[in-house]
Amino acid sequence: MAREPNDKLAAVIVEICWSQPKAVAAVVRLAPEYPIETLQGVNEFSHLQATWFFSEGSADDVALHAQSTRDNPSCPATGTFVHHNHRRPARIAISFPRLLRMEGHDLRVLDLDADDGKPVIDLVAVFQEMLPRGPLTQPSWPSKMLTDYWCDAKER
């Protein structure tokens, strides 16, 4: 598993199942060097924020230019900091899975937008007060592109 210098991993994604439509089940396993008490109280929250690393990407994959998402010509060309992929300079992603339950060092979650084996840099409980304030706005193309996002790739 690729790691950046000085990064101490919080956890690793050990299991993910994209086969359930609209409900992607996953297990995030806390790194063994962390005592179980580091999770104390997390089960009182509905969602976690998981920051994970695109470990299979490389600096050569970074795209510092505008491009159409997924090379889809029906999407407008947009800049690097619009895209949610491994072509970003830091090669990190953030996901907000629903916490189902804890089983020792394993956190069973739904809708973790990641892949098996990806290193989790940080985990934190989601606080309502720290979510974006006010209405969210976006152009129409992300909604069109992501209509079937949580479905198995075979169903898209």
Note down, in words, how this protein is organized:
The protein is mostly beta strands. Helices cover 3% and strands 29% of the residues. The chain has one helix and nine strands. The chain has a seven-stranded antiparallel beta sheet with strand order 6-3-9-1-2-8-7, with no helix packed on it. Strands 4-5 form a two-stranded antiparallel sheet. A hairpin with a 2-residue loop joins β7 and β8. The protein is globular. The two termini are 29 Å apart.
Write down the overall mean pLDDT.
Answer: 85
Strand line-up across the major sheet: 6-3-9-1-2-8-7
Computed structural class: mainly beta
Order of helices and strands: EEEEEEEEEH
Number of strands: 9
Helix content: under 10%
Number of helices, counting only DSSP H or I runs of 4 residues or more: 1
Q: Could you tell me how far the N terminus lies from the C terminus, measured between alpha carbons in angstroms?
A: 29 Å
Q: What general form does the structure show?
A: globular
Uncertain segments: 1-6
> How would a textbook summarize the main sheet?
7 strands, antiparallel
Strand content: 25-35%
Q: What is the gyration radius calculated from CA atoms?
A: 17 Å
